[in-house]
Amino acid sequence: MSVPAKVLGVGASTPFGLDARQTAMFVRAAKLVPRRDPLVERADVEAGTARAVRLADELLAVDRMLAFASEAAEEALTQAEVALGPPLAVFVALPEATRAYTDEQADKLRSREFLDELERRLGRPIDRVRSEAVRLGHAGFAILLERALAQLSHGPVLVGGADSFHDPACLASLAEQRRLLCESIHDGYIPSEGAAFVVLGPPSTDRSAIARIVGVASGLEPEKTVEEPRIAELATELIRRVGSSLGSSPLPWVLPDVNGERHRVKEWSFACLRNKKLIDIDRTREERLCQEAGELGAATGAVYSAFVIEAFVTGFAPASSALIVLASDGDERAVLALEAAS
């Protein structure tokens, strides 16, 4: 759990938006149209992907992540009016270590290499001692938020996530595992890509906030066994713990990272059932943004947060608070709560 923090700036860069506002409005309009992907066709699967037309198909995985990340980070820093100066603490969630990539792309996902290139593209110094780029998947953004909050006494902190499935090894692996949504696979997902960042400041700062982080918690699911499957035990507890920080029962607005895969749907269903006082099917607004944005991987938590913040700022939010629920492909689980700025 965490103390509240001010969100001073937000940025996003996706296939459907050059900035956070464009991204939020596109997702709200539900205009996602997957495109044929030559890398998927190599795997003999008729499935589309959501990828940016402004980036050449020859540009793969990490280079695409860096293109999105540098744009999103610069937008967030500019909005927060973070001037060039002392090295900045930067936290970036990246795809899980189990994600299949070519060796060349996997090397670029190492923390030092990724931050070195991000620094070069931003033209801003990054504090290597206080910064991290970690392969944690969906839950990574919230996990890194917890770590970033401990750094706020040193000044503004930049936290985000970046991902792209556009890599031959990655898409071939997804096709082999039957995880790509197509006519013959109804519980798969549409691979997408993008990045988003927020700039955080302490509650005591005199800077104006565009939103607030009021709660975040994470952990590892207990080890599963045949005798005791342990479905959604941790997710249930995290929702209960962080949801209480919003002071509303039932919760008005919840955004799970459910992407259509059966195991994710099952876990979310169990967590909802066990938290039925907090998540009321008749009164809680549930939004599954994967249906409108595709599977965003490690960028999920950050892009969802950008969507919520833009909803607060522009006035289309169904409530003044939101709970985002995240589950990595591994055992990492996380939940974060945001409130509109008062």
Give structural notes.
- The strands form 2 sheets. The protein has a 10-stranded mixed β-sheet, with helices on both faces.
- It has helices at residues 20-29, 38-41, 61-79, 103-108, 111-122, 140-149, 168-176, 233-243, 262-274, 290-293, 300-314; strands at residues 5-13, 35-36, 48-49, 89-94, 132-135, 157-164, 193-201, 211-220, 253-256, 285-286, 321-327, 332-340.
- The protein has 342 residues and is α/β, with parallel strands linked by helices.
- 53% of the residues are buried.
- The longest helix has 19 residues, at 61-79.
- It is built from 11 helices and 12 strands.
- Strand 9, helix 9 (262-274) and strand 10 form a beta-alpha-beta unit.
- The mean pLDDT is 93.
Which percent bin holds the helix content? Answer: 25-40%
Order of helices and strands: EHEHEHEHHEHEHEEHEHEHHEE
User: Which band does the percent of strand residues land in?
Assistant: 15-25%
Low-confidence stretches: none
> Termini, distance in Å?
22 Å
Morphology = globular
| Strand arrangement, major sheet | 5-4-6-7-1-8-12-11-9-10
* Number of discrete helical segments: 11
Please give the largest β-sheet.
10 strands, mixed
Return Rg in Å: 19 Å
Mean pLDDT score, rounded? 93
Q: How does the helix and strand content classify structurally?
A: alpha/beta
- Give me the count of strands: 12
